[in-house]
Automatic annotation (TrEMBL):
One of its GO terms (molecular function) is kinase activity. Residues 14-204 form the MHYT domain. The chain crosses the membrane at residues 14-37, 49-75, 87-105, 117-137, 149-171, 183-209, 221-240. It comes from the Bacteria. This is Histidine kinase. It comes from Variovorax gossypii. Coiled coil: none annotated.
Amino acid sequence: MTPLVVGQILSPEYSLGMVALSFLISFAGSLVALICAGRMVGADGKPNLAVVTCAAVALGGIGIWSMHFIGMLAYRLPVAISYNMPLTVVSLVAAILISGIALYMAGGRRKFSKPGWLAGSLLAGLGVCVMHYMGMFAMNMRASMNFDLATVGLSVLIAVTAAGAALWLAFNLRKFTHKVAAAAVMGVAVCTMHYVGMSAASMVCTAAAPVDALAIGGSYMGLTVFGTAGAVLIFIYWVVTGSSLDTPVAPRRARAG
Protein backbone atom coordinates (compact mmCIF):
# COMPACT_ATOMS: atom_id res chain seq x y z
CA MET A 1 0.00 0.00 0.00
CA THR A 2 1.40 3.44 -0.98
CA PRO A 3 2.12 5.62 2.10
CA LEU A 4 -0.15 8.63 2.46
CA VAL A 5 1.29 12.13 2.31
CA VAL A 6 -0.06 15.11 4.25
CA GLY A 7 -1.99 17.30 1.81
CA GLN A 8 -2.75 14.39 -0.52
CA ILE A 9 -6.30 14.25 -1.92
CA LEU A 10 -7.81 10.90 -0.95
CA SER A 11 -9.72 8.86 -3.51
CA PRO A 12 -12.90 7.31 -2.07
CA GLU A 13 -14.35 3.93 -2.97
CA TYR A 14 -17.78 2.48 -2.24
CA SER A 15 -18.83 -0.91 -0.94
CA LEU A 16 -21.49 -1.91 -3.49
CA GLY A 17 -23.11 -4.26 -0.98
CA MET A 18 -23.59 -1.42 1.51
CA VAL A 19 -24.87 0.87 -1.26
CA ALA A 20 -27.51 -1.77 -2.10
CA LEU A 21 -28.46 -2.04 1.59
CA SER A 22 -28.80 1.75 1.80
CA PHE A 23 -31.33 1.73 -1.06
CA LEU A 24 -33.19 -1.25 0.37
CA ILE A 25 -33.65 0.36 3.79
CA SER A 26 -34.70 3.65 2.19
CA PHE A 27 -37.28 1.82 0.07
CA ALA A 28 -38.63 -0.11 3.07
CA GLY A 29 -38.80 2.99 5.29
CA SER A 30 -40.54 4.98 2.55
CA LEU A 31 -43.10 2.21 1.98
CA VAL A 32 -44.02 1.95 5.67
CA ALA A 33 -44.22 5.76 5.86
CA LEU A 34 -46.65 5.78 2.91
CA ILE A 35 -48.79 3.17 4.65
CA CYS A 36 -48.74 5.21 7.87
CA ALA A 37 -49.62 8.44 6.06
CA GLY A 38 -52.91 6.95 4.90
CA ARG A 39 -53.88 6.37 8.53
CA MET A 40 -52.70 9.63 10.08
CA VAL A 41 -56.20 11.13 10.27
CA GLY A 42 -58.93 9.19 12.07
CA ALA A 43 -62.61 8.92 11.18
CA ASP A 44 -63.30 11.88 13.48
CA GLY A 45 -61.07 14.09 11.34
CA LYS A 46 -58.44 14.47 14.05
CA PRO A 47 -54.78 13.50 13.54
CA ASN A 48 -53.63 10.34 15.29
CA LEU A 49 -50.40 11.55 16.85
CA ALA A 50 -49.19 8.01 17.49
CA VAL A 51 -49.45 7.22 13.77
CA VAL A 52 -47.87 10.57 12.87
CA THR A 53 -44.95 9.59 15.12
CA CYS A 54 -44.71 6.18 13.46
CA ALA A 55 -44.71 7.82 10.03
CA ALA A 56 -41.99 10.26 11.13
CA VAL A 57 -39.80 7.45 12.45
CA ALA A 58 -40.36 5.35 9.32
CA LEU A 59 -39.61 8.21 6.90
CA GLY A 60 -37.08 10.30 8.82
CA GLY A 61 -35.44 7.73 11.05
CA ILE A 62 -35.39 4.77 8.64
CA GLY A 63 -36.02 5.92 5.07
CA ILE A 64 -33.71 8.93 5.32
CA TRP A 65 -31.35 8.74 8.31
CA SER A 66 -30.62 4.99 8.25
CA MET A 67 -30.09 5.19 4.49
CA HIS A 68 -27.73 8.10 5.10
CA PHE A 69 -25.73 6.36 7.81
CA ILE A 70 -25.41 3.09 5.89
CA GLY A 71 -24.40 5.16 2.85
CA MET A 72 -21.73 6.83 4.98
CA LEU A 73 -20.45 3.41 6.01
CA ALA A 74 -20.33 2.40 2.34
CA TYR A 75 -17.89 5.27 1.77
CA ARG A 76 -14.34 3.95 2.07
CA LEU A 77 -11.12 5.96 2.32
CA PRO A 78 -7.52 4.79 2.78
CA VAL A 79 -7.71 6.12 6.36
CA ALA A 80 -9.77 4.83 9.27
CA ILE A 81 -13.15 6.55 9.81
CA SER A 82 -15.22 6.70 12.99
CA TYR A 83 -18.22 8.87 13.84
CA ASN A 84 -18.85 11.36 16.61
CA MET A 85 -21.71 9.83 18.59
CA PRO A 86 -23.42 13.03 19.89
CA LEU A 87 -23.56 14.58 16.39
CA THR A 88 -24.80 11.29 14.95
CA VAL A 89 -27.61 11.06 17.53
CA VAL A 90 -28.58 14.71 16.98
CA SER A 91 -28.80 14.12 13.22
CA LEU A 92 -31.13 11.13 13.84
CA VAL A 93 -33.43 13.10 16.14
CA ALA A 94 -33.46 16.04 13.71
CA ALA A 95 -34.45 13.77 10.78
CA ILE A 96 -37.38 12.30 12.75
CA LEU A 97 -38.65 15.65 14.07
CA ILE A 98 -38.43 17.41 10.71
CA SER A 99 -40.16 14.53 8.92
CA GLY A 100 -42.96 14.50 11.50
CA ILE A 101 -43.54 18.26 11.20
CA ALA A 102 -43.49 18.10 7.39
CA LEU A 103 -45.96 15.20 7.31
CA TYR A 104 -48.28 17.01 9.70
CA MET A 105 -48.07 20.25 7.70
CA ALA A 106 -48.90 18.46 4.44
CA GLY A 107 -51.74 16.20 5.54
CA GLY A 108 -52.19 15.95 9.28
CA ARG A 109 -54.87 18.62 9.51
CA ARG A 110 -57.92 16.80 8.14
CA LYS A 111 -57.00 17.05 4.45
CA PHE A 112 -54.09 17.43 2.07
CA SER A 113 -53.06 21.08 1.95
CA LYS A 114 -51.12 22.51 -0.98
CA PRO A 115 -49.69 25.44 1.04
CA GLY A 116 -48.79 23.02 3.83
CA TRP A 117 -47.26 20.67 1.25
CA LEU A 118 -45.08 23.41 -0.21
CA ALA A 119 -43.93 24.62 3.20
CA GLY A 120 -43.39 21.06 4.41
CA SER A 121 -41.41 20.18 1.28
CA LEU A 122 -39.06 23.12 1.79
CA LEU A 123 -38.67 22.36 5.49
CA ALA A 124 -38.09 18.65 4.92
CA GLY A 125 -35.66 19.19 2.03
CA LEU A 126 -33.53 21.69 3.93
CA GLY A 127 -33.75 19.49 7.03
CA VAL A 128 -32.47 16.48 5.11
CA CYS A 129 -29.51 18.54 3.91
CA VAL A 130 -28.73 19.76 7.43
CA MET A 131 -28.91 16.16 8.69
CA HIS A 132 -26.72 14.93 5.82
CA TYR A 133 -23.94 17.47 6.21
CA MET A 134 -24.11 17.22 10.00
CA GLY A 135 -23.47 13.50 9.54
CA MET A 136 -20.50 14.26 7.31
CA PHE A 137 -19.00 16.60 9.89
CA ALA A 138 -19.43 13.78 12.43
CA MET A 139 -16.73 11.85 10.55
CA ASN A 140 -13.55 11.50 12.63
CA MET A 141 -10.54 10.72 10.43
CA ARG A 142 -7.08 11.78 9.28
CA ALA A 143 -8.55 14.05 6.63
CA SER A 144 -10.19 17.43 6.24
CA MET A 145 -13.12 18.20 3.94
CA ASN A 146 -13.39 20.79 1.19
CA PHE A 147 -16.79 21.29 -0.47
CA ASP A 148 -17.74 22.19 -4.01
CA LEU A 149 -20.56 24.69 -3.49
CA ALA A 150 -22.21 24.00 -6.86
CA THR A 151 -22.55 20.31 -6.01
CA VAL A 152 -23.82 21.19 -2.53
CA GLY A 153 -26.46 23.40 -4.17
CA LEU A 154 -27.45 20.55 -6.48
CA SER A 155 -27.87 18.24 -3.48
CA VAL A 156 -30.15 20.81 -1.81
CA LEU A 157 -32.28 21.07 -4.95
CA ILE A 158 -32.57 17.27 -5.15
CA ALA A 159 -33.48 17.09 -1.45
CA VAL A 160 -36.30 19.66 -1.71
CA THR A 161 -37.66 18.04 -4.89
CA ALA A 162 -37.51 14.58 -3.33
CA ALA A 163 -39.23 15.82 -0.17
CA GLY A 164 -42.01 17.40 -2.24
CA ALA A 165 -42.53 14.20 -4.20
CA ALA A 166 -42.50 12.10 -1.01
CA LEU A 167 -45.12 14.24 0.73
CA TRP A 168 -47.38 14.41 -2.33
CA LEU A 169 -47.22 10.65 -2.85
CA ALA A 170 -47.85 10.04 0.85
CA PHE A 171 -51.27 11.68 0.71
CA ASN A 172 -52.40 11.06 -2.87
CA LEU A 173 -51.94 7.32 -3.38
CA ARG A 174 -54.35 4.63 -2.26
CA LYS A 175 -53.44 1.39 -4.07
CA PHE A 176 -50.71 -0.71 -2.44
CA THR A 177 -49.02 -1.41 -5.77
CA HIS A 178 -48.79 2.34 -6.40
CA LYS A 179 -47.26 2.82 -2.96
CA VAL A 180 -44.63 0.17 -3.69
CA ALA A 181 -43.67 1.92 -6.92
CA ALA A 182 -43.67 5.30 -5.17
CA ALA A 183 -41.46 3.95 -2.37
CA ALA A 184 -38.95 2.75 -4.98
CA VAL A 185 -38.91 6.23 -6.55
CA MET A 186 -38.48 7.82 -3.13
CA GLY A 187 -35.64 5.43 -2.32
CA VAL A 188 -33.83 6.37 -5.54
CA ALA A 189 -34.36 10.09 -4.84
CA VAL A 190 -33.06 9.91 -1.25
CA CYS A 191 -30.03 7.86 -2.33
CA THR A 192 -29.32 10.27 -5.20
CA MET A 193 -29.31 13.23 -2.81
CA HIS A 194 -26.99 11.40 -0.43
CA TYR A 195 -24.42 10.29 -2.96
CA VAL A 196 -24.45 13.64 -4.77
CA GLY A 197 -23.87 15.28 -1.39
CA MET A 198 -20.97 12.93 -0.70
CA SER A 199 -19.43 13.76 -4.07
CA ALA A 200 -19.39 17.44 -3.08
CA ALA A 201 -16.57 16.78 -0.60
CA SER A 202 -12.89 16.42 -1.37
CA MET A 203 -10.95 14.67 1.39
CA VAL A 204 -7.42 15.92 2.08
CA CYS A 205 -5.02 13.86 4.21
CA THR A 206 -3.92 15.48 7.49
CA ALA A 207 -1.30 14.48 10.03
CA ALA A 208 -3.62 12.85 12.55
CA ALA A 209 -7.26 12.36 13.41
CA PRO A 210 -8.56 14.56 16.23
CA VAL A 211 -9.00 12.86 19.57
CA ASP A 212 -12.66 11.87 20.00
CA ALA A 213 -13.53 9.75 23.01
CA LEU A 214 -17.19 9.53 21.92
CA ALA A 215 -16.56 8.17 18.42
CA ILE A 216 -18.25 4.99 17.19
CA GLY A 217 -17.35 2.71 14.32
CA GLY A 218 -16.63 -0.88 13.33
CA SER A 219 -16.88 -3.19 10.34
CA TYR A 220 -20.30 -4.52 11.40
CA MET A 221 -21.89 -1.13 12.08
CA GLY A 222 -23.74 -1.08 8.75
CA LEU A 223 -25.34 -4.48 9.26
CA THR A 224 -26.23 -3.49 12.84
CA VAL A 225 -28.00 -0.33 11.65
CA PHE A 226 -29.76 -2.24 8.86
CA GLY A 227 -30.97 -4.97 11.23
CA THR A 228 -32.13 -2.52 13.89
CA ALA A 229 -33.92 -0.35 11.34
CA GLY A 230 -35.60 -3.40 9.84
CA ALA A 231 -36.85 -4.54 13.25
CA VAL A 232 -38.23 -1.05 13.97
CA LEU A 233 -40.06 -1.01 10.63
CA ILE A 234 -41.65 -4.40 11.28
CA PHE A 235 -42.82 -3.15 14.70
CA ILE A 236 -44.24 0.08 13.23
CA TYR A 237 -46.07 -1.82 10.48
CA TRP A 238 -47.53 -4.24 13.03
CA VAL A 239 -48.65 -1.43 15.36
CA VAL A 240 -50.17 0.77 12.64
CA THR A 241 -51.93 -1.92 10.63
CA GLY A 242 -53.07 -3.64 13.82
CA SER A 243 -54.52 -0.46 15.29
CA SER A 244 -56.35 0.24 12.04
CA LEU A 245 -58.53 -2.81 12.67
CA ASP A 246 -60.07 -0.97 15.60
CA THR A 247 -59.73 2.60 14.34
CA PRO A 248 -61.35 3.22 10.95
CA VAL A 249 -59.47 5.31 8.44
CA ALA A 250 -60.91 8.72 7.69
CA PRO A 251 -62.89 8.91 4.44
CA ARG A 252 -61.23 10.63 1.50
CA ARG A 253 -61.84 14.35 1.56
CA ALA A 254 -61.63 16.92 -1.16
CA ARG A 255 -58.18 18.36 -1.65
CA ALA A 256 -57.53 21.94 -0.78
CA GLY A 257 -56.85 24.27 -3.65
